[in-house]
Design a protein that fits this description.
The protein has 486 residues and is α+β, with helices and mostly antiparallel strands. 44% of the residues lie in helices and 13% in strands. The longest helix has 33 residues. The structure holds adenosine monophosphate and magnesium ion.
């Protein structure tokens, strides 16, 4: 039928890597695919025809029921530290890389189906996803993109028409994820654990070509990855974002936010906030994220070491010293980026020695007062921050210091407010709204999903009609834990 054929110009570089990098296999078909969401803007950026993706042939591809010509579906092999314990083999257990496309600017993107059925890496899992985590990832990853955070993207969500069995019987879904790659620290660990130096070298060269073409040496690439992670985590911190499962298999070597499981944005600010139901010891609490990133990067450096030295003890020691120094550079980059982001959030134009202390003073007051993170900073723009504090004097005391600091650079709160307007979003995907959206979608109502998507696409624009999405949760609406929902 004309118009029904899906033509996508795949160019599958990962499939061309040696066999031990992946397992080639088709997705498992689903019962009754139905398109729930398609990201037209992203499709256009990728040079894909959105109308074709909406056609039956397109939906069949997005559900895993048809493999279009040129696709070479495969499950990627990787390993990883999960909550600090090393697992030598993880891999795509419920996802398949369909293929790669090159967008009109020449950039390469993975097109991945998540929830596409069992693979040799599934272990005890069913290889499936249910609607909740699929829509959560769709909403949160697209919100992150709109906020300018490096991230994987969501191209489509499809209902499978099949049930998925967790604690309950739940509707199944497949997410089409787009990413500049799916290379994780755990991908390097996979080869390092097998003492497969040749595989490591191949992966290094592949990663360099794809993410860091200017890196001439391993050390250059390590430094670039450290830099990207430091900037990424500082960005998360400036938005009150908690990833939730910063395992090394969820640590992207190119510096993307990847694997939206039990992630969440904080409502009231507290540095020890944890959402993930499986993070019992708070390993991945908000304030721990920079340290955990360093820990993950140290694992990355360790995986690279076999490539960085000859077998002599002197060579090894020199490599360890250089790699350690590269990882330790995280601290300075992170601190500089964190300061730059929070200065912008306070509308400061200049850098002064005492700025870190000023920012910490505000954060400490917010924690003591249970102030909402997003609303306080947006309130600074709106001139309504005091209302976020149980005792408005706590804000007023800070505001006096803030005004004095602004005066020192010849500025005023009015000027600062305007300056901070694009650093402090009005809207983030609030956890209780995400949960509400999922409950509605399970009941067949996608209107809250669509409204949330539209509201989050313009996070900095004032819109009185969206006030309900900006409100902090009432006590009974507060979400205490989010689940991986795997
Ligand atoms: P995650 O914690 O979501 O990053 O996943 C960790 C590992 O478990 C990865 O290897 C996943 O592919 C695998 N996994 C998670 N959920 C499932 C599932 N439902 N079926 C098979 N494998 C899964
Ligand atoms: Mg993962």
């Amino acid at each position: 039928m004309p118009g029904m054929t899906l033509r996508i110009a795949f160019d599958n570089s990962y499939a061309r890597l040696p066999e031990r990098f992946h397992v080639r296999m088709p997705p498992e078909p689903v019962g009754e695919p139905r398109l729930l969401a398609l990201n037209d803007a992203l499709a256009a950026d990728l040079g894909l025809d959105a109308a074709a993706l909406r056609s039956p042939a397109g939906v069949a591809m997005l559900a895993g029921n048809a493999v279009p010509e040129g696709a070479e579906p495969l499950a990627q092999a990787y390993a990883g530290h999960q909550f600090g314990g090393f697992v030598p083999q993880l891999g795509d257990g419920r996802a398949l890389l369909l293929g790669e496309v090159i967008d009109p600017t020449g950039a390469r993107h993975d097109i991945q189906l998540k929830g596409s059925g069992r693979t040799p890496f599934s272990r005890m899992g069913d290889g499936r996803a249910w609607l909740g985590p699929v829509l959560r990832e769709y909403v949160v990853s697209e919100a992150m993109a709109a906020l300018g955070v490096p991230t994987t993207r969501a191209l489509a969500a499809v209902a499978t028409g099949d049930w998925v069995f967790r604690e309950d019987r739940l509707p199944g879904a497949v997410l089409t994820r787009v990413a500049t790659s799916h290379i994780r620290v755990g991908t390097f660990q996979f080869f390092a654990a097998r003492r497969d130096t040749e595989g490591l070298r191949t992966l290094f060269e592949y990663t360099r070509d794809r993410h860091y073409p200017d890196a001439e040496t391993l050390l250059d690439l390590l430094r670039a990855a450290v830099n990207a992670q430091a900037r990424l985590v500082a960005h998360w911190m400036a938005l009150g974002f908690i990833h939730g499962v910063m395992n090394t298999d969820n640590c992207h070597v190119g510096g993307l936010t990847i694997d939206y499981g039990p992630c969440a944005f904080m409502d009231s600010y507290h540095p020890e906030t944890v959402f993930s139901s499986i993070d019992r010891h708070g390993r991945y609490a908000y304030a721990n994220q920079p340290q955990i990133a360093v820990w993950n990067l140290a694992q990355f450096a360790t995986a690279l070491l076999p490539l960085m030295s000859d077998d002599s003890e002197a060579g090894r020691n020199a490599a360890i010293e250089a790699a350690t120094e590269a990882v330790h550079a995280f601290a300075d980059t992170y601190q500089a980026e964190w300061l730059a982001r929070f200065r912008r959030k306070l509308g400061l134009a200049e850098a002064r020695d005492d700025d870190a202390r000023l920012i910490e003073t505000l954060l400490t007051r917010m924690a003591v007062q249970g102030a909402d993170f997003t609303r306080t900073f947006r309130g600074l723009v709106r001139g309504s921050a005091a209302a976020e504090f149980r005792e408005p004097e706590a804000w007023n005391a800070f505001a006096a210091d803030w005004s004095a600091r602004l005066a020192a650079e010849g500025s005023t709160p009015e000027v600062a407010r305007a300056r901070a307007a694009t650093a402090n979003p009005a809207r983030i995907p609030r956890n209780h709204r995400v949960e509400e959206m999922i409950a509605a979608a399970v009941a067949g109502d996608l209107a809250p999903f669509e409204r949330l998507m539209a509201a989050l696409a313009q996070p900095y624009a004032e819109d009185a009609a969206l006030a309900d999405l900006e409100a902090a949760p009432r006590p009974e609406q507060r979400v205490q834990a989010t689940f991986c929902g795997t």
